[in-house]
């Protein structure tokens, strides 16, 4: 998963977090997609999954705080998108654990996360940046 | 009405391919241009002012090309990971279409992506198909809707 400059919002703390998020998701995906057998890699998959999940929650919270700080009018709608994603992640994780770490569930989760995250950062989060530029508040960091 | 439905789908597909895959050379072709033996069919159900489904057909080479670009990893087969990533893209394109339709006072919702071939026994008054061609392959859209 490659970071692209066009994803940058121009808000350094959010941009740094997005880069970190891409790195953690990338690490999770490379483990998930490695050629090792599921038995061989499942422990490492679970580790990188946990490492990535914790960061998603932390980052969403910080980004929401930033939106509030600049008075972003789409805050409620954006927060709902975040909450829905967190709920989806929690639901899949619970199902994954109770299945005894079923590979198919994790492969499906990985694929959706990949497309979801790129669209979220490239489209939804850009609206925040557009607003900040319009309002001339790009200098406000969270 | 059929023509005005086709436009938002084309436009949304173009936007998503540009934004997520950095592919900008996208053109639409007559539906007859679509020839393919192995494909992934993703159906997105529509409810609200319009009712029915939109089927996105991705030839395997297109699906693999798309996921390669997104992940930066070489994918060799259309497995659970690839299918799920492509389903999410069909979901994202459809979501963007809904926003455009809502601007024209058509309020609809979409259902989660499902892997299935179309149900040919149903009749639709708004029926159109098109083939979207990109540098990594074609995508075929089959729109089957009725006004509620
Ligand atoms: Fe966000």
What does it look like?
Chain A is mainly α and 142 residues long. Chain A has one domain: Hemerythrin-like (Four Helix Bundle (Hemerythrin (Met), subunit A)), CATH 1.20.120.50. Helices cover 78% and strands 0% of the residues of chain A. Chain A contains 4 helices and no strands. In chain A, helix 1 runs antiparallel to helix 2 and helix 3 runs antiparallel to helix 4. In chain A, 24% of the residues are buried. The mean pLDDT of chain A is 93. Chain B is α+β, with helices and mostly antiparallel strands. Chain B has a single domain, classed as CheC-like (Chemotaxis protein chec, 3-Layer(aba) Sandwich). Helices cover 37% and strands 32% of the residues of chain B. Chain B contains 3 helices and 7 strands, in the order H-E-E-E-H-H-E-E-E-E. The model of chain B has no long low-confidence stretch (mean pLDDT 92). The interface between A and B is medium-sized, with 22 and 21 residues. Bound molecules: fe (ii) ion (FE2). Fe (ii) ion binds next to helix 3 and helix 4 of chain A.
Mean pLDDT of chain B: 92
Global Rg of chain A:
16 Å
Number of domains of chain B: 1
Uncertain segments of chain B are: none
Structural class of chain A: mainly alpha
**Could you name the CATH topology of chain A?**
Four Helix Bundle (Hemerythrin (Met), subunit A)
Let me know the largest β-sheet of chain A.
none
The CATH level-2 architecture of chain A is identified as Up-down Bundle
What is the overall silhouette of chain B?
globular
Average pLDDT of chain A: 93
- How would you sum up the global shape of chain A? elongated
CATH superfamily of chain B: CheC-like
Number of strands of chain B: 7
Our count of domains of chain A comes out at 1
Largest sheet of chain B: 7 strands, antiparallel
**Poorly predicted runs of chain A:** none
**What is the N-to-C order of secondary-structure elements of chain B (H for helix, E for strand)?**
HEEEHHEEEE
Listed once per kind, the bound small molecules are: fe (ii) ion
Strand content of chain A: under 5%
């Amino acid at each position: 998963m490659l970071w692209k400059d066009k994803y940058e919002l121009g808000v350094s703390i959010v941009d740094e977090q997005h880069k970190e998020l891409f790195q953690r998701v990338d690490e999770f995906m490379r483990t998930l997609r490695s050629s090792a057998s599921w038995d061989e890699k499942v422990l490492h998959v679970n580790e990188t999954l946990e490492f990535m999940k914790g960061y998603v929650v932390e980052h969403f919270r910080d980004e929401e705080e930033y939106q509030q700080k600049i008075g972003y009018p789409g805050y409620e709608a954006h927060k709902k998108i975040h909450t829905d994603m967190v709920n989806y992640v929690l639901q899949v994780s619970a199902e994954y654990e109770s299945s005894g770490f079923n590979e198919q569930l994790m492969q499906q989760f990985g694929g959706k996360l990949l497309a979801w995250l790129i669209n979220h950062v490239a489209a939804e989060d850009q609206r925040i940046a557009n607003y900040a530029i319009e309002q001339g508040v790009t200098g406000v960091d969270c | 009405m059929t023509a005005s439905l086709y436009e938002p789908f084309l436009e949304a597909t173009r936007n998503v391919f540009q934004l997520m895959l950095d592919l900008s050379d996208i053109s639409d072709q007559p539906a007859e241009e679509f020839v393919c033996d192995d494909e992934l069919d993703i159906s997105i159900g529509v409810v609200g002012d319009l009712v029915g489904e939109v089927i996105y057909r991705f030839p395997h080479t297109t699906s693999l090309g798309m996921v390669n670009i997104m992940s930066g990893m070489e994918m060799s087969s259309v497995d659970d990971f690839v299918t799920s990533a492509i389903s999410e893209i069909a979901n994202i394109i459809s979501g963007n279409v809904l926003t455009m339709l809502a601007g024209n006072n058509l309020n609809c919702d979409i259902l989660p992506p499902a892997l299935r071939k179309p149900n040919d026994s149903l009749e639709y008054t708004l029926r159109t198909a098109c083939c979207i061609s990109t540098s990594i392959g074609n995508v075929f859209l089959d729109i089957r809707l009725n006004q509620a």
